[in-house]
Structures are given as structure tokens and as C-alpha cells.
């Protein structure tokens, strides 16, 4: 029996593929390589194609006796989703619907879904638990929530068991393999600050310093990508014996402000980070911090690398060795 990872050549996908391989799973990757990188996979079988391609998915499932799907393939930029909502509903909701249809027809009954903290919207209570209301403030979060809803009904109708993992801010890079963050364009804070510190970009702009937080900048919960990968592997294992539909938050439970991130990057690199202070970014809540108590208790999830120094050091290591991302 094997695991199909869609979007397995992407950032979190490729770290999860490495984790599954390390734990002895047979892994097959499906990725259209528009955002993913072939170089992020090390000998894992890769099919280049689309999750909505019924014929291809059916072929892969039969050929490799796939019994579990870990689904990352998606468009995932909050800002872009506000500009192009229909592209997001098409790529995320419509295509995942097509994928689920194929899985239901072929009797694949285990599904791990890459969801997001963006399903919560503006938090009413921090830290955010899984019981918190879901009220996304952007199309990206709404597409992910729609898929979570589809999964509930797929269990009801087809007996498809699923676990949705709602992550907070994924960051860092693999500690031993040459894989890390390579988004084009890059929009995430930690890679931008690290690249500015290393002289790979001119500066970083802090989006707003008038929030009601300890230093006026937004507070986020950064979690190491390898810890996220281990949570996906634990979810795959759990679905071997656990039935039904479940949802887990994945965060480290500690919030860091934008200024604190910049300070840690300065400390780790020994360099000053060229910084500009700019306006708020639309749609940014002041504070997003997870309660991951449920994942720790029920998935036995252990955070091993998510202190901010380790996250930043691993990112510094990746960006200094790969200034052009996977191209260099
Ligand atoms: N941020 C920033 N400058 C940037 C990119 C991000 O100040 O160039 C801030 C952003 O406002 C947010 C935090 O850094 O408070 C994390 O943003 P990111 O885009 O990495 O993740 P998000 O929280 O949007 O998922």
C-alpha cells in the first residue's frame, strides 16, 4: 500500500515526502511543477500532472495500490486570492472536488488535507483552538474551509476518512536535506528577512507598526516545516486505525512579532537587516497564535525544531547555500 502526495514537490509537500520516506512509506508524488520543484524530490516517483485529471489519477491509484492521499496541491497566496478569487475556487475547490470524485470512485478512503489557520479569520479568542469559529476573511481561507466541508460529506456518503491540518506560519528548512522555501515571488516574512540580511534583497518592509501588540507589529505563530511534516506522517498513521473526520491545528503556541523575527535574524546572521516601515497589509489580523493541545494529545505530535532560533538558522543555512533557490 502506498501514499500519494499531491503537491509533493512544493515547500511543505517535499518535507512531508522526505518524512514519509524516512519512515518507510512507499510514496508517489503528483505535481504539475508550476510552483513545485523537481529538485526537491530525491528519487521519489513523480507524476507530472493535474489533480483533476481523472484518467491519470485512476492510473496512479491502480498501478501503485494507493490507499492514502495527502493533498497539498493548491494555490496558496492570501493576497493573490483576493485579486483572483475565481482562480482560487477553480484551482482549490473545483479541482479538489474532481480529485475526491476519482478517489470515491476508486474506493480510496484515507485523506490527509493541507488546510490553514486562514479558515478562522479575525480571531475572537487567542490562542485559537479547533472549536474557534470559522469565518475566513479572504478567498484562500474560504476555499480551504469549503474543502473541509466537502470532506465531512464525503465521509457521510462514501466512508472517506480524513484529517485536516490547519497550519499557522510554516517556516524554516530541512536540517539535513537540501530542501527549503523557494516561492516565486516570495511573500513570506522569514525568507524575506533572511534574504535581506544576506544581501540577497535590498530590504524588508514591515507591514504596519500601529497594531495593538507589545511592539506594534503583528504577532504570528511560526512552526518549523519539519514539525509540520511529522504531523502529516502521524496523520497518515492515525488514519490506519482511526475512522471519521477530524481537524487539528498545527502551530507552536508561541507568538513572535515581526520586529522580534527581525531581531532573531540579526542575531543569527550577525548582520543588520535593512528595514523599512510601511503601511498595514490588508486582511492581516494583529495576532494569530494556535493552541495545538489537541494535536499534541491525540496525534502525539512533538515539536522538535520550532524554537525561533532553529527555524531562522535552518532558513539562513538554506538561503545562504541556495541564493537562487532550487536553481542554484
Ligand atoms: N510581513 C511583513 N512584511 C513582509 C511580509 C510579511 O511585515 O514583507 C508580516 C505580515 O504582515 C504578517 C507576518 O509578517 O504579520 C507574517 O506574514 P506572512 O506573509 O509570512 O504569513 P501570513 O501570516 O500572512 O500567513
From TrEMBL:
<keyword id="KW-0299">Galactose metabolism</keyword>
<feature type="domain" description="NAD-dependent epimerase/dehydratase">
    <location>
        <begin position="3"/>
        <end position="251"/>
    </location>
</feature>
<dbReference type="InterPro" id="IPR036291">
    <property type="entry name" value="NAD(P)-bd_dom_sf"/>
</dbReference>
<comment type="subunit">
    <text>Homodimer.</text>
</comment>
<comment type="similarity">
    <text>Belongs to the NAD(P)-dependent epimerase/dehydratase family.</text>
</comment>
<dbReference type="InterPro" id="IPR001509">
    <property type="entry name" value="Epimerase_deHydtase"/>
</dbReference>
<dbReference type="Pfam" id="PF01370">
    <property type="entry name" value="Epimerase"/>
</dbReference>
<dbReference type="GO" id="GO:0033499">
    <property type="term" value="P:galactose catabolic process via UDP-galactose, Leloir pathway"/>
</dbReference>
<comment type="pathway">
    <text>Carbohydrate metabolism; galactose metabolism.</text>
</comment>
<dbReference type="GO" id="GO:0003978">
    <property type="term" value="F:UDP-glucose 4-epimerase activity"/>
</dbReference>
<keyword id="KW-0119">Carbohydrate metabolism</keyword>
<dbReference type="InterPro" id="IPR005886">
    <property type="entry name" value="UDP_G4E"/>
</dbReference>
<protein>
    <recommendedName>
        <fullName>UDP-glucose 4-epimerase</fullName>
        <ecNumber>5.1.3.2</ecNumber>
    </recommendedName>
</protein>
<keyword id="KW-0413">Isomerase</keyword>
<keyword id="KW-0520">NAD</keyword>
